[in-house]
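for the recovery benchmark. tokens below, seq after
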């Protein structure tokens, strides 16, 4: 297939592009390099793709670019581009424009070039649509507790509206806390590992007993690629790691991997942060064979080794 991947220079997007190329697909990658974190990090994410014969990269902002040429000949779209993280309280307009308006313009470009029924659309969503307590299956109440979660739920519903109105074969994947090599520098595990490697204190928001059903990047990518040809249009699917772990437990694993003890500083929990997440992945297992294989300990050790290499090179 020829697959369009938005957010291709990001943590997950770059891994997805690499897997698609390895599987023999042709990939068009789009990214706007919005300065949420340093551009150099995203450019580094693309290093394994640069020069690949079946990969083409375009620096494109979904919000203000004519996208019809980019989507004209694609068989499928994996829509990863979005603003994530806790800054949505302070940058609401940016999150709305990137997560909702950008999605709408991408969908409209597909509608403009026609043949919607033959173009698979994978909308990447988030466990944040469930709110503070994200445990259970896809029928759990949708109660996002942050503007980020609200914009992602709106984008998800917008995609489903195009499915119902115009026949776009679209589904949504609700990711649960992805981690591993290339994880964004603002994410907790990246911060913890970096601080430990540098001998710096670690700030923990809340009591550290908040839990996550984290998903290792390789499992996330496998599930995403499986969804290109599996799963039911018009449906949402959880993609999670299946094993809950508290922040304190994760930090203990990281301490063991790094070989040092953290200087822990506990502070108030952040507004809108999730307390517990754990995906019921029964639906994804049934419909497209998704099965995570990487344990939290193995995944965190792999991320530590990646970040150790980065630190050695700085």
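predicted aa per position
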């Amino acid at each position: 297939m020829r697959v369009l991947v938005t957010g291709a220079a990001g943590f997950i997007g770059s891994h997805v592009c690499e897997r698609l190329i390895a599987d023999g697909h042709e990939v068009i990658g789009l990214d706007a390099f919005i300065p949420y974190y340093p551009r150099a990090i995203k450019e580094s994410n693309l290093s394994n793709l640069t020069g690949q014969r079946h990969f083409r990269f375009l620096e494109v902002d979904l919000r203000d670019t004519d996208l019809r040429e980019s989507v004209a000949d694609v068989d499928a779209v994996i829509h990863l581009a979005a603003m994530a993280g806790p800054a949505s309280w302070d940058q609401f307009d940016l999150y709305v424009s990137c997560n909702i308006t950008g999605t709408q313009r991408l969908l409209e470009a597909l509608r403009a070039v026609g043949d919607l029924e033959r173009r698979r659309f994978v909308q990447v969503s988030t466990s944040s649509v469930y709110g503070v307590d994200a445990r259970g299956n896809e029928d759990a109440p949708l109660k996002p507790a942050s503007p980020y979660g609200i914009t992602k739920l709106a984008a998800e519903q917008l995609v489903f509206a195009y499915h119902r109105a115009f026949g776009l074969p679209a589904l949504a994947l609700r990711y649960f806390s992805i981690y591993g090599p290339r994880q964004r520098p603002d994410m907790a595990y990246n911060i913890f590992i970096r601080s430990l490697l540098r001998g710096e204190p670690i700030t923990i928001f809340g009591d550290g007993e908040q839990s996550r059903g984290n998903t290792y990047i390789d499992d996330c990518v496998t599930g995403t690629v499986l969804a290109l040809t599996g799963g039911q249009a018009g449906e949402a699917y959880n993609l999670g790691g299946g094993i809950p772990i508290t922040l304190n437990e994760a930090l203990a694993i990281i301490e063991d991997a790094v070989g040092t003890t953290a200087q822990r500083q506990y502070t108030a929990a952040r507004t809108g942060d999730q307390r517990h997440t754990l995906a019921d992945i029964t639906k994804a297992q049934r419909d497209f064979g998704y099965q995570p294989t990487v344990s939290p300990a193995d995944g965190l050790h792999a991320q530590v080794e990646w970040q150790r290499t980065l630190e050695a090179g700085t």
